[in-house]
């Protein structure tokens, strides 16, 4: 009987030593369910499960191979999670290129610099809008530099040409600014441009708010794309929060007060004042009230003392 039970549990993957130990403890008449419970209680595991539980060593994979290790897949998942927290980027290609070319040359390299800057931050959705006629050979009145960059960005599905056509020898161009604002609004993203789109703001009140809150201006400093650290001004969000869907709010008590020593809020101010660490943080108005109340209270106390027997 014991041999049959031994063979049965061996087939289930349990070790002979553990099975024999349990059978000796329970006796030859023990039920199979009791033997199984005792094996589980001892912490014995089938050998097949133990082999699966052991981490498989990382294998070297040749470049270009499709096979990936589980660890690498997890890294990819984490990266996608982090990119999900970043806002989509919509770049006004004409504005960026002309700005990099000092408003004289359509510099495609400026567009590449802007795209690379957002790529390095981890943004996965980046779109650049450029009029279709910029694909044509350059003319003297509209010079283009590094035009091949447009082709490369188009192959990467980053560059989008806004449509245009010729009617009776005249070029009919669609308004690319409308594409830029519309896509950024629908994607709840950020517009990268130094243009204020005032005509589009007047068209649609929702667009007006969106342009005011989501327009990221920039500068080129020695072929370096540089957006401001405070896109909405001194009292607005930081650049990291501006480009994130879930901004990280710092505790206000650790944020320096923008008014500094000129602040009149006193202890009601929610910001940090290093100069007020050893003094009561009263507002200027409260300090004046306190000074005027002191002599009045002293006079009243003196009168009470004089009146008392």
Specify the CATH class of the largest domain. Alpha Beta
Hey, roughly how much beta strand do the residues contain? 5-15%
Low-confidence stretches: 48-81
Structural class, from secondary structure content? alpha/beta
Query: For the largest beta sheet, what order do the strands appear in spatially?
Result: 5-3-1-8-9
Instruction: Report on the biggest sheet.
Output: 5 strands, parallel
Zinc finger (C3H1-type): 251-276
Domain C3H1-type: 251-276
Protein name: ZC12D ribonuclease
GO molecular function: hydrolase activity; mRNA binding; RNA endonuclease activity; zinc ion binding
Structural account:
Residues 48-81 have low confidence and may be disordered. A 5-stranded parallel sheet has the order 5-3-1-8-9, sandwiched between helices. It has helices spanning 2-11, 16-26, 32-41, 47-53, 70-84, 93-100, 108-121, 148-155, 176-187, 198-203, 205-214, 239-242, 284-307, and strands at 89-92, 106-107, 126-131, 144-145, 159-162, 164-167, 170-173, 190-192, 215-216, 219-220, 225-226. It has 3 domains: 3-42; 82-243, Rossmann fold; 260-290, no CATH class. The termini are far apart. Helix 6 crosses helix 7 (108-121). Helix content is 45%, strand content 11%. The chain has 13 helices and 11 strands. It is flat. Strand 6 and strand 7 form a beta hairpin. The protein is α/β, with parallel strands linked by helices and 309 residues long.
């Amino acid at each position: 009987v014991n041999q049959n039970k031994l063979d049965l549990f061996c087939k289930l993957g349990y070790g002979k030593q553990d099975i024999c130990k349990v059978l000796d403890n329970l006796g030859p008449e023990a039920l199979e369910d009791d033997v199984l419970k005792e094996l589980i209680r001892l912490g014995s595991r089938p050998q097949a499960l133990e082999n699966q539980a052991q981490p498989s060593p990382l294998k070297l994979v040749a470049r270009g191979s499709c096979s990936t290790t589980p660890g690498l897949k997890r890294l990819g998942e984490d990266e996608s999670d982090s990119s999900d927290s970043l806002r989509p980027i919509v770049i006004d290609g004409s504005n960026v290129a002309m700005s990099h070319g000092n408003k004289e040359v359509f510099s495609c390299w400026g567009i590449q610099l802007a795209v690379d800057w957002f790529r390095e931050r981890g943004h996965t959705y980046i779109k650049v809008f450029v009029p279709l006629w910029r694909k044509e050979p350059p003319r003297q009145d509209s010079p283009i530099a590094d035009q091949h960059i447009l082709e490369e960005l188009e192959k990467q599905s980053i560059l989008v040409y806004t449509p245009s056509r010729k009617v009776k020898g005249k070029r009919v161009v669609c308004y690319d600014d409308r594409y830029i604002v519309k896509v950024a609004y629908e994607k709840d993203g950020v517009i990268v441009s130094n243009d204020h789109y005032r005509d589009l703001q007047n068209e649609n009140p929702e667009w007006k708010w969106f342009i005011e809150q989501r327009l990221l201006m920039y500068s080129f400093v020695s072929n370096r794309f540089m957006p401001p650290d405070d896109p909405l001004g001194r009292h607005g969000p930081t650049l990291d929060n501006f480009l994130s869907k879930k901004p990280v709010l710092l505790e206000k008590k650790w944020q320096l007060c923008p008014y500094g020593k000129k602040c009149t809020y006193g202890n009601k101010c929610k910001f940090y004042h290093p100069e007020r660490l050893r003094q009561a943080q009263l507002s200027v108005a409260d300090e004046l009230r306190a000074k005027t109340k002191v002599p009045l209270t002293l006079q009243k106390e003196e009168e009470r003392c004089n009146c008392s027997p």
